[in-house]
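HUMAN: I'm a chemist; might I ask for a sequence paired with its structure tokens?

ASSISTANT:
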Amino acid sequence: MSELVKRVRAWFTSIISIESLLREQKLLLFAMLFYFCANSVSSVFLNLFIYQTTVNSSGLLSVDALTNVILYNIYTYVILIAMTCFTGMFAKRIPTKGSMLAGLSMHILLFVFVLLTDTNAHKYLWLFAALNGIGSALYNVAYNEILGYAFDERSKRLFIFIVGVCMTLAGIFTPIVAGSFIQVGRNMNGYIAAFGTALVMLALSVAFVLCVRLQKKKKIQRAYFANVLVSIFKDTNLRFVHLAELVRGIREGVIAFLLPVLIYTLCENAVAVGIYVALCAVLQMLGEWHVMHTGNENNRMGLMLFAVAVMILTTAVFLFGFSVMSIYAYGVLTALIAGFLYVPIVGIYHWATNRITNSAKKTLEIQSARELFVTVGKVIGALAALLLHKSNALVAVIFVINLILILTWVLFSRVGEEEEQNVLLTETKETEIENNAD
């Protein structure tokens, strides 16, 4: 055991050593770690808070509470769509450090207003959605920009790897800790402890960002967001990948928030929600790690089809309605094979977007375009849940949003098809010319 501890310590020391990452990069790393922890609290337990405060209000039923949760997420997606367009057009004009600090400030205000509104939180869904959506958009665009000019290729790969580890750890431990606070504290006291801890984490993140010394942008760069959107609609492969991402977003827009809330409605145990989220994070990490080591261009479509088939078949656990065990079973199985779908998508997407002229100069706009399509899909999925949840048709909604993943697979399978046909046509013509010459 002592030998294992020494190896882990040596590995961690090498990761944070001066030789591996510079001072500014380490500061950003710690800032992001605290942000991920706070974001894990808001992404899961703010939905539970809205649900519980709605139920506790006089005259409101649990079905009305679920309506408010769905509405909050729809509002957030709509704000994200507007912010994605804004950042796509103007992010290059905003100072990177200022954008990150603004994003953190929006999240701080979010938790402050949540705590101030107390049991009336369900009346301020638009405010919460606006702060969450604006904050997330500004923070994410700053992160993407920093990777673009603050790192060389070697340190960028290392930094992204460590950030991925931090996100996974935050996704594993934070939900359990926050869920324990809420369950032990009972009602508002528990939420005050969980959200108050998140506020401290965000304050620490701000402190680390303030210590970072980033080089100022040399000049205002041209924005290519409109150009990228035009390219998407003109190029067949780009249309396929972005439509596929839109369809994928339909499922993501529902599953991300609905299942944890349903667990809480069934058992009223925030720890059970935290364990569910943590378990899904662990299994998804393991699945993605497996695919990254075994997947390649030859088998990626097969991996994606396998993932889609499992996601569809796993909805059979809901044939007799929702229960904590059925939701756990669905979440565990789909999280484990999610990487079989997501990892190949990354490779296909990057291959397609490299076709855009001067794509290296348009990285931020390309990422914004992708987020735009995915978020539009999320709105569609959440609207379907909003329209049908009162008629006890949520099982049907979950089945359909998994079933249409077949369309995602079909669209991605069509990417590059035109090039393959042109190659075959060229080879056929060359063969004919050789035969005629003989």
Observations:
- The two ends are 73 Å apart (CA to CA).
- Residues 15-20, 420-432 have pLDDT under 50 and may be disordered.
